[in-house]
Write a structure and sequence with these properties.
Distance between the termini: 47 Å
Structural class: alpha+beta
CATH topology: Aminopeptidase
Order of helices and strands: EHHEEEHEH
Shape: globular
Number of strands: 5
Number of domains: 1
Oligomer: single chain
CATH class: Alpha Beta
Radius of gyration: 15 Å
CATH superfamily: Gcn5-related N-acetyltransferase (GNAT)
Length: 145
Amino acid sequence: MDSLHITEITRFSPELTVAVNRLLPQLSPGRSLTDGELKAVIDSDASILLFAYCGDHIAGMLTLGRYPSPTGLKLWIEDVVVDEAFRGRGIGRRLVEQAISLAEAAGNATLMLTSNPTRVAANGLYRAIGFEQKVTNVYRMKLPR
C-alpha cells in the first residue's frame, strides 16, 4: 500500500471539490457540494476537514464539527467516507483516530457521532475504537420546510 497520511485541509482549491464530490455520493447518494459550500466548510472555525491520502490519491475524508454548549464543549464526527477502491486498509480507523486526537486536544469535551445501523463495518469500527452506543432518539428536520 502507498504511504497513508492524514491532512487537515486549511486551504480551498477546486481540485478538492472534485475529490469531495467523488467521495460524498458513496456516503450520501445524490449529494454534492459547490466550490462555495466546500470553501465555507474549510474556512469555518466550527469544522475541521480531514483528508486521507494514500500516496497522491485522496482515499477518504472526515469532518470534525465543534461547538460550545451550556453542558460543555461538543465535538461531532461527521461525513466519514473511504473510497470504495481503498476500503479494508484501515483508512477509516486512521481518520477517526486523528479526529479523536484533535478532540482530546480541545480539552474537556464530549465526542459524538452517528452511524446508520446498515453500515456494519463502520459501527464495528466505532465500537472497537471505544465509542459506546448512546440510547437516545435522533430527530431531524430538513429546512426550509
